[in-house]
Amino acid sequence: MARGDLILTVLAPQLTADIQSQLDALVVQFGLQEKSTQRLAESSLPDGKHVDCIEQRLVGDDIDIEEVRHAALVLSETLGVDIVIQDDVRDQVRHRLICFDMDSTLIKAEVIDELARRHGVGDEVAEVTERAMRGELDFKASFRERMSKLAGLDESVLAEIADELPLMDGVERLMANLKRLGYRTAILSGGFTYFAYYLQDKLGFDEVHANELVIENGKVTGDVREPIVDAERKAELLEAIALREGFTLAQTIAVGDGANDLKMLAKAGMGIAFRAKPMVRAQARQAISTAGLDGVLYLLGHCQQDLTP
């Protein structure tokens, strides 16, 4: 424990007096002093939702940041808002690279489950997917098991599903602003390149790394090309992209929801669990559970007036 600077960011549909009172109590509980408070957002968004966001820069002695983060997470869940704690290194580090998981992060679906449903094996594959995302199964083993059940699926189904992919709340606004602000963006997914490339074309990601389905004679074979993008591979890719682009790991951000994202979240300078499984929320350093994906912009310190709608 040591003297340190923290940033506390709060995202809520409305910042009420009760929420502010409990935030003040959290700050007092850990002996923190307020250096500054800034309102980053107070407006209606294009999807019709309202968002309030404040950012407090705090300082204190003998800070155990993990204790502060845990208390903030508990309070977040109690109040139904997002309270995010991070080290205040903004004056020393400029984030440059942001890497995203795809399924249940950029889109409101697990594509392998959708493929399985169309192939008549939806329930058995979805059960394995859910257990894998909770960290109860080895990802590679469970992935191969699920893939084997897709053998014989017609290739035309891929295009049908791609056309119907439900985008995550806030992803279009997030990507428009990240591109405008000069961030490099990547999809690092245990899902499939077919759908990741579709999102790249639609939203403008700089690069894509995912699993490539093996298709023969217009049918899915049940195999994918090696190497499989699993938890270790995601973390390796994040580091490799940063090195190639001349960024430090401190300049990287990772966003994901499942157990197979944890190593990527830990490797990045900022690791954000987005609408994640409880185990992932508990282990990640930052978590967004109630706001849309564009809430990431506020964790980076961007103000509403500096962002496009």
From TrEMBL:
GO molecular-function terms, A-Z: L-phosphoserine phosphatase activity; magnesium ion binding
Gene Ontology, cellular component aspect: cytoplasm
Ranges that cross the membrane: none
Keyword Magnesium: yes
Ranges in coiled-coil conformation: none
Keyword vocabulary terms for this entry: Amino-acid biosynthesis, Hydrolase, Magnesium, Metal-binding, Serine biosynthesis
Cofactor: Mg(2+)
Signal peptide: none
GO biological process annotation, one example: L-serine biosynthetic process
SUPFAM superfamilies to which the protein is assigned, alphabetical: HAD-like
Catalytic activity: O-phospho-L-serine + H2O = L-serine + phosphate; O-phospho-D-serine + H2O = D-serine + phosphate
Keyword check for Metal-binding: yes
Pfam families from the UniProt entry: Hydrolase
The protein's annotated pathway: Amino-acid biosynthesis; L-serine biosynthesis; L-serine from 3-phospho-D-glycerate: step 3/3
Highest taxon, organism lineage: Bacteria
Record-listed E.C. numbers: 3.1.3.3
Classification via Gene3D superfamilies: HAD superfamily/HAD-like (3.40.50.1000)
Annotated catalytic residues: D101 (nucleophile), D103 (proton donor)
Similarity section: Belongs to the HAD-like hydrolase superfamily. SerB family.
Name assigned to this protein: Phosphoserine phosphatase
Organism: Vreelandella sulfidaeris
Gene (UniProt): serB
